[in-house]
Design brief:
Elements (H helix, E strand, L loop, with lengths): L2 E6 L3 H12 L4 E5 L14 E2 L1 H9 L13 E2 L1 E6 L3 E6 L10 E3 L2 H10 L7 E5 L1 E9 L2 E9 L5 E10 L6 H6 L3 E5 L4 E9 L10 E6 L4 E7 L5 E8 L9 H10 L2 H4 L6 E2 L4 E3 L4 E4 L2 E2 L2 E3 L5 E2 L7 H20 L5 H32 L4 H12 L2 H11 L11 H23 L1
Parallel strand pairs: 1-2, 1-11, 2-8, 5-14, 11-21
Antiparallel strand pairs: 3-7, 4-7, 5-6, 9-10, 10-11, 12-19, 13-16, 13-17, 13-18, 14-15, 15-16, 19-22, 20-21
Helix pairs in contact: 1-7, 2-7, 7-8, 9-11
Length: 427
């Protein structure tokens, strides 16, 4: 075999797996179809929270390689159907950070790619298209492909890893089935970057979420160079693109006056990107000689901004499993079983929280009296706010968000705040 591990896909999941294996002096080849810098083919959340930054620290990628001061967001502002607004302050999370970054994926992915230059045993080739897998019986032992329409090459390795995204070629060629999926409540997302956006939060660069509570949210993320990424997030069964995504996107933004006032004097600076009926699920993670990681394995709605973190976490878990197998401490089957168990334990709680939020926040339509009372009491409650942001930062178990104790406290404190406000206004 030419290599210990061959990785198809050189974006964050593939590049960070290669970095971890390279730090162990394993012989690795990373193949990437694109030429960097370039954006990924499939839209994803641009949010990098402290948990993800800590994982990047571990493989030697500093904030300065992907971060921008304008895109450092310490606050999240929510506006609920124009009825009330609240600002949440990010608590101190992993590695003492109290902020999230909005990242330019072309810059971020390129930083992950160039970080591999630090590892002598890691080779990387961009502009390389994988066209087939090489098998001996049922065992995957390599790939067939070519560089820039050059002659076909066969490259062998002890293991082939698919880190090639939501529509993974490796997963398809290996016949990796979807083994868990939530496709009842799905969203459709379109987004672009804008310049000249009016400040969305008095406290500085921030995430801004406007929810109609009727199946449509609009999200703003502060981005480098003074830009904002503006995203429409709508339940799929109510989206009618009509073959004109540009019209759909602009008309959706203009349909909410509270949103459009931030954009009416702004200018869109990037092409429109989008994805319809975003799936949420898991594929079979491995088989004879192959494994999947990142979106190739575990894909979900971007609303909670967990995609980059989950990809980085899964590469850490796969690195551990591969290292035990390469050293002879475990068989392939045992190592891959441990990988599957570890990934499910690490990602399932947040996955269930995300699909639960999709149902509650896009598909359920609470009566307006409930929005003005129970939902307002919850969203404006300081303890709920800190819990919510700690969960998004993977600092608390996701189940805390819907615990009976937390919800009862929100209601009690909300009633008390309303009573105090009424007392003050009647004095």
């Amino acid at each position: 075999m030419n290599y210990d591990v061959l990785i198809v896909g050189g974006r964050p999941s593939g590049a960070t797996l290669a970095a971890r294996l390279g730090a162990r002096q394993k012989k690795v080849l990373v193949l990437e179809k694109a030429i960097f810098p370039s954006l990924p083919n499939v839209p994803s959340s641009p949010a990098v929270h402290p948990g993800a930054m800590e994982l990047l620290d571990e493989i030697g990628i500093p904030e300065s390689a992907y971060a921008s001061d304008h895109a450092r967001m310490r606050h999240v502002r929510f506006n609920v159907a124009g009825l009330f607004s609240t600002v949440m302050r990010t608590p101190t999370l992993a590695a003492g950070r109290d902020y999230t970054y909005g990242v330019d994926r072309a810059v971020f992915d390129t930083a992950c790619w160039h970080n591999l230059d630090r590892f002598p045993t890691v080779e990387k080739r961009q502009g390389f298209t994988v066209t087939d897998l090489v098998k001996e019986g049922q065992q995957v032992v390599g790939i067939v492909g070519n560089s820039n329409d050059g002659p076909s090459e066969t490259i062998k390795a002890r293991a082939v890893i698919g880190a090639d995204g939501r529509f993974s070629f490796v997963a398809r060629k290996c016949g990796a089935p979807v083994i868990e999926e939530q496709d009842t409540c799905t969203s459709t997302v379109y987004y672009a970057d804008w310049a000249g956006v009016r400040p969305v939060c008095d406290e500085g660069p921030a995430t801004f979420v406007y929810t109609t509570v009727r199946g449509l949210d609009v999200l703003f993320f502060a981005m480098p160079n003074g830009l904002y990424s503006v995203n429409t997030h709508q339940r799929s069964d109510r989206v009618d693109i009509g073959g004109k995504p540009e019209n759909y996107y602009l008309n959706t933004l203009k349909s909410i006056p509270e949103v459009w006032r931030y954009l009416e004097k702004a200018e869109r600076t990037t092409p429109l990107s989008g994805i319809k009926r975003i799936g949420n699920g898991y594929r079979q993670p491995s088989g004879p000689g192959w494994a999947l990681v990142g979106d190739a394995l575990h894909y979900k709605d971007p609303v909670d901004g967990q995609g980059i973190y989950d990809a980085l976490l899964e590469t850490k878990l796969l690195d551990q499993a591969l290292s035990l197998w390469l050293s002879g401490a475990r068989t392939w089957d045992d190592a891959m079983k441990a990988y599957r168990d570890d990934v499910w334990a690490a990602t399932q709680p947040m996955f269930k929280t995300t699909v639960g939020r999709l149902k509650r926040e896009l598909y359920d339509e609470p009566p307006w009296p409930v929005v003005r009372t129970l939902i307002r009491w919850t969203v404006t409650d300081p303890i709920y706010q800190e819990t919510f942001l700690r969960i998004l930062g993977r600092d608390l178990p996701p189940g805390r968000l819907t615990s009976k104790r937390l919800m009862a406290g929100c209601i009690q404190r909300g009633i008390a705040r309303d009573a105090l406000s009424l007392f003050k206004n009647t004095r």
